[in-house]
Amino acid sequence: MPAIACFAGLLAATAAAASASAAGLTHLAHALLPAHGTLAGPLAPLLPAIACIVLFYAYALLLHRLLLHALPLRSGPVESSVRAAFGYQLYLLFYLMVFNALIRSRVLPIPLMRPVYLALGARLGARTHTGGTILDPAFVTIGHDTLIGEAALLVPHVLEGGTPAHFPIVIGNHVTIGTHAVLLAGVTVGDHALVAAHALVAKGTVIGPGEVWGGVPARRLRGARADLLQRGQTA
């Protein structure tokens, strides 16, 4: 398939660029830092590998953003045109073969996952962090001071009738998404709302400001409190 061949070529070029850059940086580090008495001493054998991995993902993220700009994914079903299908296949290959391992490995601490998701296209407000997983970050918008709990899952894509589609997930300010909760495509969560742990929020659900939802499938457990609504108007 053309997308696979293109992906393989881009991946090889990215790896080669990362390797060359890492070699240059390692040589520079050895020249600038003494071999003993500093952190560079014991870590010297690992520097090339660490630099190569970091640079590989940095270059891959940059390439991914350029591809999204050149071949943008639209909300709704993926178009049947050759260009749209090629762009979607390339996007899927990059996400599954490169970024999925980074996102799901839990190697990076939670604060460092924020810049990763931002680089992948997510829109995250100030002081918003996630201990869960955001799939298709370009289709996720989250306001400020919102917490996504451990192992929660945001899934903006669906596959219905054999046609893949993306519907944005929009989460407001001061929202709490409980641990292991799942939000499916097209979900909207208002300011100051709470989604309970292990809840499954169905596709297209609209959760109002200050409401509490839980269960499988999720339903409203409590309406908005007046103080939260008033606070939301000034947030």
From TrEMBL:
SUPFAM superfamilies: Trimeric LpxA-like enzymes. Keywords: Membrane, Signal, Transferase, Transmembrane, Transmembrane helix. Pfam families: Hexapep (PF00132). Residues 1-22 form the signal peptide. The chain crosses the membrane at residues 46-64, 85-103. One of its GO terms (molecular function) is transferase activity. PANTHER family: DYNACTIN SUBUNIT P25, GAMMA CARBONIC ANHYDRASE-LIKE 1, MITOCHONDRIAL-RELATED. This is Transferase family hexapeptide repeat protein. It comes from Pseudoduganella lurida.
